[in-house]
Q: What sequence folds into this?
């Protein structure tokens, strides 16, 4: 089996640390049902290499407490704290209509919802603790920038068309709305 490329992996959880003294691992899950993690034989690292093999798991606050192959002490479990856990995109079910995985947004074209002007492409989806942000590579070159992934800033996502329609907020120093003459 070959390792999946980072573009085809989906983040499903993060090791929060050890639980108890027998090497159980607390995992914060990012799946709708925390026990979904037990359906995957191996959870991977971001580079696609094996990270954990779950032997059993039970639901706990914010995720699961799991027994993992090769992790037998609290110290070994604690050493994994912060480890991000991924599964191949192909191992996940297809999303329902009008739903998508955030990873499916990467590489999509971004156009302005009102003018249809090309804005750029989505380079990545980030979350620094508040809400999701789309990292945009500008069509005309230059520094990437972040667009809040909210209904107001991104009113429409068309995965099948490879398109995101956006209404980015004005940048600092840019006028908001039409400029009016003030001849008083």
A:
């Amino acid at each position: 089996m070959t390792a999946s490329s980072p573009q085809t992996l989906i983040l499903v959880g993060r090791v929060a640390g050890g639980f108890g003294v027998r090497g159980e691992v607390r995992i914060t899950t990012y799946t709708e049902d925390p026990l979904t993690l037990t359906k995957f034989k191996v959870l991977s690292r971001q580079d696609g290499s094996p990270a954990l093999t779950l032997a059993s798991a039970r639901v706990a606050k914010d995720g699961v407490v799991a027994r993992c192959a090769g992790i037998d002490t609290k110290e070994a479990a604690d050493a994994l704290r912060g480890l991000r856990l991924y599964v191949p995109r192909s191992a996940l079910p297809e999303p329902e209509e009008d739903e998508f995985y955030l990873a499916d947004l990467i590489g999509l074209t971004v156009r302005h919802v009102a003018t249809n002007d090309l804005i750029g492409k989505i380079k990545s989806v980030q979350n620094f603790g508040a809400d999701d942000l789309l990292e945009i590579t500008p069509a005309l070159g230059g520094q990437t920038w972040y667009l809040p992934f909210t209904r107001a800033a991104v009113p429409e996502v068309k995965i099948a068309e490879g398109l995101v329609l956006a209404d980015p907020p004005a940048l600092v120093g840019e006028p908001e709305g039409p400029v009016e003459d003030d001849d008083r």
About this structure: Confidence is low (pLDDT under 50) at residues 1-6. The CA atoms of residues 128 and 153 lie 18 Å apart. The longest helix spans residues 74-78. The chain has one helix and 13 strands.
